[in-house]
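Question (not urgent): is this output format expected?
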Amino acid sequence: MDTLILLTILVVICALAFDFINGFHDTANAIATSVSTRALPPKTAVMMAAVMNFVGAITFTGVAKAITKDIVDPFSLGEGVGTVIILAALISAIAWNLITWYFGIPSSSSHAIIGSIAGAAIAAAGFQVLNYEGFTKIIQALILSPFIAIAVGFLMMSLFKVIFKGFNLYKTNKGFRTVQIGTAALQAFTHGTNDAQKAMGIITMALIAAGLQSDDEVQGWVRFACALAMGLGTSIGGYKIIKTVGGKIMKIRPVNGVAADLSSASIIFGATLIHLPVSTTHVISSAIMGVGAAQRVKGVKWGVARKIVLTWIITLPISATLAGLIYLLLDLFV
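Got this back:
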């Protein structure tokens, strides 16, 4: 029992570390467009994103419950086995996040943690341990959301082109630069409502697996701790990824930034309301691609976009494999 409690504490620490890393890894998603158009100085943008991430994270719990029970049923796991599975998944997801952050690649923390949970669980108990109905629903949301973001970004920018066709370009850009402050704040808020809940769900799963909780409700201290960890992580900033998302996909003007922010924020918040985890990285990068295609197809740097998409594709299998290997290693010692 002492070992189980110790492992559970270690899981909580790793989950908060994952949330902290997710904060600075995904900060760029919320503020890249506003920084690249100089609507906000980087430090101001990062601090605003930190506050709004915290507010968004502490407001909702639906996605956390989906993470808790829709990938693997925590009530079906043995106490010791379940805790080691979750620990292996967190170590794997943290490692992948740090690798992609170091190289400035806007990878998906969502893909990393979901793939890692599945991979560690399969290594422990075989494929039958997966909750196929819930897991399939989550995978569908992760796959479809970037395509929806491209379409919405394209339509939003096309609409803006029609509405503001006869306006003075200088005055329009100046006005949109001001609007971008609000859309960046909205983007950070929606990021918090979805991404921070993944760590909440993992901690809740660990508490259930350890026999310390009997339902899937997210406890108050878990909500506050995860929201705080993400807010603090966001305050550190992820400037390498800001550079990629904010400038390397396309040259962003204020009107493009507003269109991309509104498109991606609406999709992320919509997913939160129906309790589905999506990749904020995928959604925001895809919205920028859609906006760029509506502006000028050749203006999108599709080579960079291809590298980003490739990272999206390989994250799930790599993180699942890594988590499975880490579980087998931990199983030798625990």
